[in-house]
Amino acid sequence: MKYISKYIEQLGATIEFTTFTAGEVSEIHAMLSIEPRTDMFEQQFSRIKEAENMLMQLPEVSGAKAVFKRYFLSDATNQVPAIQENDHCTISYIQQPPLDGSKLAVWLYLQKGTDISNSGNSTRVSHNGYRHIWTMGLYNTTADTSYMQTWETLFTYIDILRQHDATLEANCVRTWFFVRDVDTQYNGLVKSRRECFAEQGLTADTHYIASTGIGGTPADPKALVQLGAYAITGLSPEQQRYLYAPTHLNRTSDYGVTFERGTLIQYGDRNHVLISGTASIDNHGEVLHVGDIRKQTLRMWENVEKLLEEGGMTYDDVMQIVVYLRDGADYAVVSRMFSERFPNIPYVITLAPVCRPTWLVEMECIAVKATSNDFPDF
Predict the structure, then answer these.
(1) How many structural domains are present in the chain?
(2) What CATH number should be reported for the domain holding residue 328?
(3) Is the pLDDT of residue 360 over 90?
(4) Is the pTM for the entire model greater than 0.90?
(5) Residues 6 or more apart whose Cβ sits within 8 Å of residue 180
(6) Hey, how many other C-beta atoms are within 10 angstroms of the C-beta on 47?
């Protein structure tokens, strides 16, 4: 694992990225941020695109191709039409304002050594008998409730998976649900997802999917819910294991939601751990340290640490972090805490209310570690 950070003074841009190589394949996670400099969106976008172009020319990144990209935006409805992209990868645009004062930040996931192709909302990565299908930006506006929009969007995704000879139950390993006004619309999502999952064979007695369900505003004003997802074909069942950290966390099904706390995916040359959105909660499902952002952050870190440990990893194996804050006024405190605890890991902090009003902060992450076993390499 290698962590690299570069500040480009003429652009007022910071490039932070992590590289990992094992076997034939390299993975790169990058976070791009910019100083606002009182610029309008078009100027900030131009500067961050130039920073991205410089990233792609760096020796550690040269030759890599983008798998997916997420824009964290301050005003998605007005900004998405102004974004001109020619990338051959799936892209997620979501209104979750970066809390550094800028109008946008970017998370990029890139690979070397694989065959990457794009079709519609999906990027397909093929290598060594696996197909990795990253699908972003799905939503539905024909319905007028979060329940029905979630239902229709999930079945759109199920149809996409079918085109790749995949199913939700057997192949999807990670989802992101972005919810407009999460305090009022989240319950409809939860009910719809639970019923759809049950119909597809996903129950508390089988398994669920690692996930983040968080406040986020789609660019289309009529969209209440937006979905992104990651699926894999070619895995054998024993290559996946679900993470629970029962000393610190309860099963999500205890309080009626349907996602896994984390998932370990094992390959011959590496293991991946996908950590779901995690907050300050105990193993009875109760929110801890109500009203105290510092203590909630510390407990959140502890919960994630226990999930990583269960997957055979530590924070030293984490490639990227996304942090969600309910109250932007907490940014100074949380930013300082993260910069001191994780000086090397690329992360972004956005304004995005968590699904319970008393949760002030949530985080998700992806970790990778070299290994050697009898499974086919990544």
Answers:
(1) 2
(2) 3.30.1330.40
(3) yes
(4) yes
(5) 215, 216, 217, 218, 223, 224, 225
(6) 22
Q: Where are the alpha helices (DSSP H) in 311-374?
A: 331-341
For 171-208, b/e burial (b = at least 16 CB within 10 A) is bbbbbbbbbbebeebbebbbebbbebbeebebeeeebb
Q: Determine, yes or no, domain membership for 121.
A: no
**Alpha carbons 307 and 310: distance in angstroms, whole number:** 5
Residue 51 domain flag? yes
Domain-ending residue, one of 113, 138, 171:
113
Distance CA 89, CA 82 (A): 18
Q: Is residue 162 part of a domain?
A: no
Task: Pick the last residue of a domain from 51, 85, 113.
Answer: 113
Q: What are phi and psi of 352, to 5 degrees?
A: -160, 100
Tokens found for residue 257: 């939601």
Please determine, for residue 63, whether its predicted confidence score (pLDDT) is greater than 90. Answer: yes
Q: Read off the pLDDT of residues 13-32 as tens digits, 9 standing for 90 and up.
A: 999 999 999 999 999 999 99
Question: For a pLDDT cut of 70, what percent of the chain falls above it?
Answer: 100
Read out DSSP for 282-321?
A: -TTSPBPSTT-HHHHHHHHHHHHHHHHHHTT--GGGEEEE
Handedness of CA 184, 278, 360, 217 (dihedral sign): negative
- Look at residue 125 and give its three-state secondary structure: strand
Q: Sheet containing 347-351: give its strands across.
A: 240-243, 262-266, 270-278, 361-370, 318-325, 347-351
Rounded Cα–Cα distance for residues 351 and 107 (Å)? 15
Asked if residue 226 is part of any domain, the answer here is: no
Q: What is the pLDDT of residue 246?
A: 97
Mean residue pLDDT across the chain: 97
Rounded-to-integer distance, Cα 346 and Cα 140, Å: 32
Domain boundaries, position 286: 275-378
User: What six digits make up the tokens of 313?
Assistant: 């990893």
